[in-house]
Amino acid sequence: MKSAKQFTFRSATAADLELLLDWQSRPHVREWWDSTEPGEAKDFDDTRVARWIVGLADQPFAYMQDYSVHGWDDHHFYDLPKGSRGIDQFIGELNMTGKGYGPSFIAQRLKRLFEDGAPVIATDPHPENVRAIAAYRKAGFKELRRAEETPWGLVLPMVVYP
Asked: Which pLDDT score, from 0 to 100, does residue 5 have?
């Protein structure tokens, strides 16, 4: 895994929409990120979700979000302890995939979320997304339960503890 200290995280804003929509239109992202959310300026007003542009040497290459799993009554992680966070992300720049950056920037963000008091962090890749599952495992995640259908599609629930 790459050194976790080399990544920057800056808050994503509506000014990043053009970049995010460009990344979301790319085939390697569209394969698993099947929404355009965030796709409108109003999406950045949702206080349940913290959105980040991830950079390496100050060059943006990925998007990451963390969110309150208790922000939605029907969320499949609602049974986790109060203060738990969920994460999602994608690498927008194809030339940055397959190099170990995913597990590294995920681990860096996990460290911060745990420092901020999250008792557990969850994620939910599609069960056929073997690259994402491998990246999450490298970052310390383990399967919580079998794959399940949710309002957001078929997912493999995974968690990591401090």
From this structure: 59
